[in-house]
């Protein structure tokens, strides 16, 4: 279960404190999926980063299956993220010099044992339809294919929480629909908590739970 309670975030800027989130509450159980919409600058990425322990809230609490990542030191926090959270960003952030297969294996480089990860990477790449592209470099892939590699990479350690920040923002309609179907399919199979930020009503329409972030708070829509 992902639980956020009374999350607030203010950025410190030269012009003073900039309030972005106020008292945001969110509860998602294992197996639940939700879409978050909202105008540009409303704080969607900020919220996603806090939920994935990439950034700290100014106040409030986040727990994932009862543990609070912000109570950990920086190293433990990085390990927590690596183990329990998968991120997919609008820009895929693949390593250009690595092959598709190597890119998917990147999050396992810090694992105690790498046993079993390569077959798993191959299986995931098969599930995202890229079995025939294992040795391609990112520059040799289409936009949708790169995003599918990023999804396989986000799932390699079987995270409890999968956070996607405009994963289809750079894709045409047909590729976007495919990526969303794929995310929902993998989410069902692996019983993750899936949270997707999107500007597209069409993408949000695939989710039974939808929220809008406006005026610094999160409302169910
Ligand atoms: N590191 C930062 N320091 C100061 N202000 C920031 C910082 N990051 C974001 N902001 C501000 O916080 C607000 C929320 O930003 P955020 O990136 O969360 O918006 P968003 O909803 O994801 O927007 P978009 O849809 O354009 O991606 C914006 O007004 C932005 O200018
Ligand atoms: Mg954003």
Structural class: alpha/beta
**Could you state the order of secondary-structure elements as H and E?**
EEEHEHEHHHEHEHEE
Strand content: 25-35%
Judging from the principal axes of the Cα atoms, what is the shape? globular
Count, helices: 7
Which range best describes the helical content: under 10%, 10-25%, 25-40%, 40-55%, 55-70% or over 70%? 25-40%
Explain the layout of strands and helices.
Elements: E1 2-13, E2 16-28, E3 33-37, H1 44-51, E4 59-64, H2 74-84, E5 85-88, H3 100-105, H4 117-127, H5 143-155, E6 161-165, H6 173-190, E7 193-197, H7 201-204, E8 209-214, E9 217-220
Parallel strand pairs: 3-7, 3-8, 5-6, 6-7
Antiparallel strand pairs: 1-2, 1-4, 8-9
Helix pairs in contact: 4-5, 5-6
Task: Describe the protein in words.
The longest helix has 18 residues, at 173-190. The chain starts with a strand and ends with a strand. It has a domain at 2-90 and 157-220: P-loop containing nucleotide triphosphate hydrolases (Rossmann fold). The strands form two sheets. A six-stranded mixed β-sheet has the order 5-6-7-3-8-9, sandwiched between helices. With 221 residues, the chain is of the alpha/beta class. Helix 4 (117-127) packs across helix 5 and helix 5 runs parallel beside helix 6 (173-190). It has seven helices and nine strands, in the order E-E-E-H-E-H-E-H-H-H-E-H-E-H-E-E. Helices cover 32% and strands 27% of the residues. The site of adenosine-5'-triphosphate (ATP) has 12 residues, from strand 1, strand 2 and helix 1.
